[in-house]
Structures are given as C-alpha cells and as structure tokens.
Amino acid sequence: MGPPKDTLFRSADMCLTQLYIANEIGREVVSALGEVGEVQFRDLNTETSAFQKTFTQEIRRLDNVERQLRYFGSQIEKESIPVRPQYEFSNILAAPSASEIDELADNSERLEQRVSSLNESYETLKKREVELTEWRWVLTEAGGFFDRGDVEEIRQSTEDDDAPLLRDVEQQPRGQNGDASGGQSLSVMNIGFVAGVIPRSRIAAFERILWRTLRGNLYMNQSEIPKPIIDPTNNEEIQKNVFVIFAHGKEILAKIRKISESLGADLYSVDENSELRRDQ
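Given the sequence above, the corresponding structure tokens read:
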C-alpha cells in the first residue's frame, strides 16, 4: 500500500504500481487506462523542464490544434451557423487514435488558411464597398453644393466680413453646368477645398477644433448620410456625415487634412467641374 496522500480518490485505498510500456504502444495504453477512470498517474520527472521532455513538440502541436478549433468556433458564432449538439455524437470521451489526431491537425491547418484567406477577401471587398458608398455621398453632396451656387455664401476671412469670398466668381455669369464661366475657378482664386466623411459623433468636436485652429478662416458645409455605414472590421453600424471645407492656401488645407484624419475622417478627391464629377 502506498503512503496516504491527497489524490483524486481521497476516500479509496490506493496501490502504487509501476508499469513498463514500450514507446510504440505507450499512448494507446495510457488512453485505455484513462478511459477506465481507475488510475491516477504521477509525474516522476518533476525536476525536468518542459522543454527537455520528449513529448514537448507533440504538446505544442496539440495546443496549436486547440487554438485553431477555438478560431473556428469564433467564426461559427460570428456567422450564426448552427452546430450539431454533442449528444448526437457517440463516445465523445474516447481518446482519438494517432492517425485521427494527425488527420485533425492537417485538416485544421488547411481550413484555417482557407478561412483566413476568405476573411481577408471579404474584408477587402467590404472596405471597397464602404469606400465607394462614402465617395458617392461625397460626390452627391459636393456636386449639389457647386450646382446650387452656394459658393456665393463663402466669405473671405482676410478681408471685410461683408465681402464675399468669391467676389470675382459671383460677378461672372454662370455656365450651363452651374460653374463660373470665363475660366474662373476656385483654384484661380487660390481657394481649395477638402471633402470627406466623418463619424457623426465627432462632427461637433471636428467643427470646434477647426474653428479654433484656423481662427474661423474657413467655410464648412456638412450633411448627414441617411443610411448607416457598416464597419467591415466588426460589422457595426456607424452614422456618418459628409463635409466640404473651403479655405485659402495650401498650408491651411494641409492642417485641415491632418485634423480630419486624426479624428477618423476619410478624405476623398472631388473635382469642382460638374462634368468631371459625373465621370468620377
């Protein structure tokens, strides 16, 4: 009889037994004894580090398989895919054979690469879809702004507050497309603009930062996107606004772009010519 010691079988008398098993059948014997549930194994190499044990590579391989199975489970839960319940499988507690483990490891490795590739392709396509959707709203908002002739509302911050920013432009007759005729454009007047999309929750802070940083030397027009934009990374709906900001000089425009990007805005290129906007 072995000495008394706390074990899994505290109320049962235990007998200390030593077995000599060949390496070729060691796994099958240990699995069979484990299924019986009457044997408790002791580690006789407690002083040996995990890296010095002969089965370390096999344990690492099984840990990787376990990680892959957790990954599959998260993907199944994410897509709400129905899974067969455990009671439909027979003898789920039986230890798999070595060939079954090898087959599971190979299939898991292959499926993980395939699922990861599909997820990357899906996220790439969704990001492209989001970019095109936002760009369409930017073109619609900016095009409506130019076509309505709202440039007359822009004021020049460096001159008198009552003077229009595009004084020369508003005095010129407008062409058939709503643009200023005679070759007059915003670029000629040294006026540029930045257009993009920003989350609606940050629009108030965005306006305050721009106003304080540029001391009011800008003209901003923004509108809400009626439909939420779905973030492809987490599939969450985000309410966003389209904005068009007019200002003087390249330095001020560069500041506007930096502030916009720091607040999570996506900037898009828009041409002030209506025909080029239609081509976009």
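The beta strands are 191-199, 219-224, 229-230, 237-238, 240-248, 266-268. Try to locate this feature in the token string yourself.
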